[in-house]
């Protein structure tokens, strides 16, 4: 950008720096100096080689025109020259400045209009964020500014604030390309409401009890074979209207002295501006995810299919899973799609083949009520839904939880089906509406991606 003095072409109008030429204004001798308007955005370039406030302008070159100090008329005369050059599309300019000790520096810039009418400034070619203008000062003022430069830069450092901003981001494309399931994450949660300690629902167990129930649920899920892992837990405040005995038995946050009583309570209240008692219920949201992600499987139906070939059940923690699969008929959808093999592998490892989504709708448990009931999906309605898919010959997609990303699926697919005991579940047998999935793509490396 700016560099130490380079060899300018000699000109009859060039004045020796040693002569220190000045021009007079109202009896006072002035020079044209640099006024830094906007610093460079490159911190490593903010050095002494750059033109800075207080540098004395020694020479200006616009095209083939060379102007040397003294500049009669000062900055106003230079503004007229800049205005004329800009109107003639001659905006390239080179400025040389003089400093104490006979040192010189130069800047290559372009002429641009300023915010002030009929005024022009110079913008560095290499850094559009670096802008300078011209000012009339006495030479002693310039030398004083040059001597105090370090102090001014330290002051500017203390005053400079880091700036933030917004940048565009291709969310739709990233969500479609980066996620295993487009536009959907594998971060799942279940919300635990505090348990009511009386039949009327006016009192609730404390926060510690809600956390303990959340902990017990995730541990029981893992022990039952659900391939999930704990991620995080957080408390969540839910607003509710309270009245009567509930309001009288609730801890109120009316002052700072009451805050110590809120540490472990599940329900506290306050009055709003209208005198209405508002309750804040502290629920617990537990986050979990499948151990090795989800498998999307597309189910296509053949004209000859009379059943899908597997049944579903629901465990005590509210998860829907494939409880049995036909393995003595290679023509049923369960065998064609690889569901039979996945079911066998899950049995071998003591895992449940959990269904997480049906047609992209999540079928996982999502809330625990104050009475302790887990809100989850009904297996009978799921069976009926999938039966309609089979009868209407309408394909659909399901997702399954995986327990090991390095499953040897190729070896499993190569095995000859062997008889297994079909478990009947009165709660969730799918009957002739057992389900059919698309053929699993088994790679040569035995790694499911």
List key phrases describing it.
single chain, 449 residues, alpha+beta, eight-stranded antiparallel sheet, 10 helices, disordered N terminus, disordered C terminus
Quick summary of this structure?
With 449 residues, the chain is α+β, with helices and mostly antiparallel strands. It is 22% helix and 29% strand. The radius of gyration is 39 Å and the shape is elongated.
Explain the overall architecture.
- With 449 residues, the protein is α+β, with helices and mostly antiparallel strands.
- The chain is built from 10 helices and 21 strands.
- It has helices spanning 74-87, 139-147, 149-159, 171-177, 207-223, 244-248, 333-337, 339-349, 379-392, 409-414; strands at residues 23-25, 28-38, 56-62, 65-68, 92-99, 103-113, 120-124, 131-137, 188-192, 228-241, 251-252, 267-271, 277-290, 294-299, 310-314, 320-325, 353-358, 361-362, 367-368, 374-375, 396-401.
- The strands form 3 sheets. Strands 1-2-8-7-6-5-3-4 form an 8-stranded antiparallel sheet. Strands 9, 10, 11, 12, 13, 19 and 20 form a 7-stranded mixed sheet that branches. Strands 14, 15, 16, 17, 18 and 21 form a 6-stranded antiparallel sheet that branches.
- Strand 12 (267-271) and strand 13 form a beta hairpin.
- The longest helix has 17 residues, at 207-223.
- Residues 1-21 and 410-449 have low confidence and may be disordered.
